[in-house]
Each structure stands twice: as structure tokens, then as C-alpha cells.
Design brief:
With 427 residues, this protein is an alpha/beta fold. The chain is built from 15 helices and 17 strands. It has 2 domains: 115 residues, Urease, subunit C, domain 1; 301 residues, Alpha-Beta Barrel (TIM Barrel). The strands form 4 sheets. Strands 1, 2, 3, 4, 5, 15, 16 and 17 form an 8-stranded mixed β-sheet that branches. The protein is globular and about 70 Å long.
Length: 427
Amino acid sequence: MKAKLLKNGMLIDGTGAEARHEVDVLIEGNKITAIGNNLSVPDTYSPGEIDILDLQGKTIMPGMTEAHTHFTWQDSIYIQDIDFKPIEETMIGAIKNAETMLKSGFTSCVSAAARGRVDIALRDAINRGQILGPRMMANGAEVSATGSFVDLHPNHVRVHGLSFLADGEDEVRRVVRSLFKEGADLVKLNVSGESLTAHATGEMTLYTYKEVRAAVEEAHARGKRIYVHARSSDSVKICVQAGVDIIGHADFIDDEAFDMLVDNKDRLFVVPALNWLVSTLEHGAEYFGQEAIVATGYEEGLEIALRNMHRLYQAGVRILPGGDYGFKWCPHGQYARDLEHFVKLVGMTPMDAIVSATKYGSQIMQMEDQLGTIEVGKLADILVVDGNPLEDISVLQNHSKLNVILKDGEYVVRTLEVSHLEERAAV
């Protein structure tokens, strides 16, 4: 692997510190070994052994983390589409989506559930270098109660698709144990409903404290974590009390739930998946009709979610990007939209939105000592962006502006010219 010297960039290091200009970053192997102004190439390098990239003021920043990933959700319209798609085709689509995410500047991701063992196999193949993809925390099928928003088939039909149905403490324990046995890094529970499903709306709480606590006990006994879908205020309270680690959505929280999240902000992560709501309101009527979208209450729900996310942000709760991508109207590849939503709708500063995707991303990945910030000794998961995301956060959505993407010190994308020592010496 060639060493790389990124010269003359604007550094956003991911810590929240002010951007620095005319900064050089030296990468040797898979690690960052020097950061400074006018760095020299170490004498140990011969011509051709190091790539020199003159960034001409372009932005250097850490790779981002997508914290609500569904690689096996693939341009679906209905949840049933995920269940009935042949698993072989689902695997092929997941491989494609993993590459898309990496080439979108997201070098790490946390799965929020998948069909079967697909994410587990995908994670292992990425780690072996067989396929392109981000660093992954792999999940298995969602664990849901009977009558939940993913329990959509008639009672006489049982489909082992995106979810396992489990009721009662013992059954929840059995299913959670089985998922960890298969190699999951974390397990997802659907604790509340979802308003696209009339019999189990987002305001409903579908699991009890004891059921959620059973899952948490099984996870923590193995050094693993529980991720939940929890929109209703009661479901969020149950999850906080039960010791859940990652809360997806948390839209409809009341003051008591808000206080509980703030009191536990040092151990909890909140991933609101705002783009699901935004995109459904923007494009859902094309697929379901306007009457159906109005019936979901998503318009009011988005307003409530934005107010609550603003309050949580102001209180220092770690809110991360992750937008439930994978449905027809919310496709893979748009992951950086969440950062724009954080800035324009939640009220974050652009710097804080970047921190949420980088520093907080490394924390949710449990790799804070290795990822998330541009610091000496850390792994070289790095983006070079042709633009300033502090002035226009939407530039991160433009893949043509991602001039360099490095994962583990290796090029994923490089559109900039490289010079070498012999070329420089000849000048």
C-alpha cells in the first residue's frame, strides 16, 4: 500500500474544533501519521512509493457513519416486498448497496436490521476484502411482537422475512439468543408501531418493559447491544428504563421521556431517521395516494419530531444520521440528506452535524479510539470534498464532489491527479 500525502487542504477534523487551512495529512499504511503545515515527505520514501495530492484548499474530513442502515431494503414499496423477495436477489442487492454507501462517503454503518443472515455475511465478506463496503455493525432480522407493524400476513401464513415474531420474555430471549448465535453484533426490537400500518401506529407501544429488559439482559451478557424502533413516548421510557443502547426515532416523546433521555445521554444514542418522514411526505403520495399519506399523520409527526430533536440537541444528547433508506421513495445513496435535515430542520450548526456523523459515528461503532476524527494514530478513513460543507452542508450529497474517499488508507474513490517524488524533483 502506497503512502499518501494530502497537501494544502482545509481540515475539518471531526472534533468540533474550528476548521484549519493549508493543512497537510500524511497517511502511512492504514494510519494517519502526521498532520501539519508544509509537511515534508519522510526521507525513507523512494520515488514512486508515496502519492502526493495537492488539494488546492479542498476539504479534508473524516469518513461518515450511517447509523440506521437497511442494506436488504431495496427499492421496496411495501414491507411485504422485503419479505417475499428471493433471498439470493436480496443478497445481490445488499452487495450493491454496501458499495453505494461506501462511495457516498460513509465509511462505517450500523445496521438497523436485515433479512436473514445477509448483513452478517456481508460484514464478513467486507472484512475479508472480498467486496467493497463500509465497516459494519451487523444486525439480523427484527424482533417484533405479534400484531406489530411488520406482522402483515394473515394468521394462517407465516413468512420468515424481515422479522421474527416473539411474544413474552422467554420467547424474546430465545430469538435474541438465536440471532447472537448466528453472529449479529446487535439486535433490533420493534417496541412501538409505525403509522403506515393502521393496526399498529407509531403512537402504540407493542412490547412491555419485561420483554425489552429480557432482550437487553441477553445482549449485555454477551457484550452486545440492543437497537430499538421506538416512536411513542411510552416505548421510549420503557427502553431507557430497560437499558437499551440505541433508540431509533423517539419522535413522540413527552417531557418525562425527554428528561430520561437527557439523564442517560452519556450512554444512549438517538437516531431519528428523519429522512424517512421527509421523503415519505415528499414522494409517498406517488405510491399510496395523498389520502393514505394524510392518514399516517406524518406531517404533524415530522413537526413534533423536529421540535423534540431540537430540544435533545440543545441538551447535548447524541443524535446521529441514519434515514431508513431502501424504499422506493427513500433510496440508497442519499444518506447525507440527514445532515442537511439536521442543519435546516433541527437547527444544528453545520459543524455539529458533521460531528454527529463522524465523532459520534465512531462512538456508536465502538471505535472511538480508531475512527471519527482526523488525528495522528487513527485509521485513515478520510474524505476529500470539493467544497466547504460548513458553508453548504448539501455538498456532501453530491457524489461528484467527493474527490477522494479512503477507507483503511486505501482508495475507494480518487478523481484527483497524483504526483510523485520523481515528478516533483524534476520541476
